[in-house]
Amino acid sequence: MNRTDRLYALVEELRACAPRRVSARELAARYEVSARTIERDIGALQQAGVPIFADVGRGGGYTLDKSRTLPPLNFTPAEAVAIAITLSRAGGSPYSRSARTALHKIVAAM
């Protein structure tokens, strides 16, 4: 599994387990990498803005704040185009900057 796939899988794993904490050791065993690799991956995700929280010590681990994320959405191609067109016409609105970044994310995913 390459790093990009592992990062995505880590987010989905933590989302599915939340609010239960998962240790770096557990995640390392699941993805067949070292605990240090998991720690670096979690750090990269946190720097990217993914709301992952860590508790240290016995019983600690990583957890994802489900209240600050949305589950993955599956759009049909027509739905994705409709959203992209709507977002591209949001210039001048109070949400124009957010619409622009959302549009970039949709286009990247397509």
Report what the structure shows.
This protein has 110 residues and is mainly alpha-helical. The chain folds into two domains: 66 residues, Winged helix-like DNA-binding domain superfamily/Winged helix DNA-binding domain (Arc Repressor Mutant, subunit A, Orthogonal Bundle); 33 residues, no CATH class. It has five helices and two strands. The chain has a two-stranded antiparallel sheet. Helix 2 packs across helix 3. The longest helix has 15 residues. The two termini are 22 Å apart. The model has no long low-confidence stretch (mean pLDDT 88).
Topology record:
Layout: H1 3-17, H2 24-31, H3 35-47, E1 52-55, E2 61-64, H4 77-88, H5 96-109
Antiparallel strand pairs: 1-2
Helix pairs in contact: 2-3, 4-5
| Uncertain stretches of 5 or more adjacent residues | none
Tell me the distance between the termini.
Answer: 22 Å
Count of the separate structural domains = 2
Structure summary, number of beta strands: 2
Helix content: 55-70%
Structural class: mainly alpha
Strand content: 5-15%
Q: Please count the helical segments.
A: 5
Q: Could you state the oligomeric state of the chains shown?
A: single chain
How many strands, what sense, and barrel or not for the largest sheet?
2 strands, antiparallel
Molecular shape: elongated
Just give the CATH class of the largest domain. Answer: Mainly Alpha
CATH topology annotation of the largest domain: Arc Repressor Mutant, subunit A
CATH superfamily of the largest domain: Winged helix-like DNA-binding domain superfamily/Winged helix DNA-binding domain
Q: Order of strands side by side in the largest beta sheet?
A: 1-2
What is the CA-atom radius of gyration, in angstroms?
A: 17 Å
Helix-strand pattern: HHHEEHH
Mean pLDDT over the full residue set: 88
Q: Using the 3D structure, state the CATH architecture of the largest domain.
A: Orthogonal Bundle
